Amino acid sequence: MTDSSPSFTDRRVIVTGASGGVGGTLVRLFRDAGAQVIGTDVVPGEGVVACDLRDENAITDFAGQAVADLGGLDILCNVAGVQHFARLGDITAAELRLHTDVNLVAPMLLTQAVAPALVASAAAGRGGNVVTIASISATFAQPYNSVYCASKAGVLLGMRSLAIELAQQRVRVNCVSPGGIETPMPHNAARALPADIDWSLLMKSTSAFPGFMPPADVCDAVLFLASDAAKSITGTNLVVDRGVVF
Ligand SMILES: NC(=O)c1ccc[n+]([C@@H]2O[C@H](COP(=O)([O-])OP(=O)(O)OC[C@H]3O[C@@H](n4cnc5c(N)ncnc54)[C@H](O)[C@@H]3O)[C@@H](O)[C@H]2O)c1
């Protein structure tokens, strides 16, 4: 956090994917900025509330309990995600459903579950809003990544649609679309690729600033959109990708 970072004193925040690279960093930065935060993940972590986002009943239960524990909610950050590369011939219905459930269905259902609390927050002038991590894969076609790309494209447009629905209640809904971040996710995804794929297809993109970003660079964009500094921004997609060119 820098001196110019927004303050979140007394703001009540939920972060999914809290055991992961981006989610864990985001929980820490929100707390450093004065927020009360409940982090959740399917993987256990210190202070992380267990919830499997593939389970719609678990989402409802988690949302109800978290809002009760926080005494309301001002900010929902949908960060949890999965990414498994696959060639067309290797795609399974189970993998399609997994990506859709975690990357698209869960953020939509969680937003639905906490919407009344966010409406109350906005009405009280506490800035109720949602920030969802999509990806540059939501708008760029990528070989062997069709399952992930489709799920991220879905959540991006889903969230932009919800921004219009919730605008009357002054609840803002935005996305951040990162390029490569230095977390286990892209490395694990790449390791699972078969050796005989056409690597030249994967190498077609480059970025103006080389290398993966630290998670904090993406979190800074989330913090900005979640803060009052972004009070006139809704329905947007803030791309944080070091200038990717395809
Ligand atoms: N790392 C990248 O290069 C990159 C690039 C663009 C977008 N993203 C997106 O950023 C977000 C954060 O990813 P990350 O890089 O921190 O990866 P990560 O793997 O470190 O974190 C993702 C977290 O989501 C959790 N998760 C997965 N399935 C879940 C489920 N069923 N229920 C609850 N939690 C579940 C995982 O346990 C993990 O802690 C994701 O939405 C990802 O798609 C990542």
Automatic annotation (TrEMBL):
Protein species of origin: Nocardia stercoris
The molecular function terms in GO held by this entry are: oxidoreductase activity
Tell me if Oxidoreductase is a UniProt keyword of this record: yes
Pfam families xrefs: adh_short_C2
* Protein's name according to its UniProt entry: SDR family oxidoreductase
Keywords, alphabetical: Oxidoreductase
Keyword Oxidoreductase found: yes
Record family assignment: Belongs to the short-chain dehydrogenases/reductases (SDR) family.
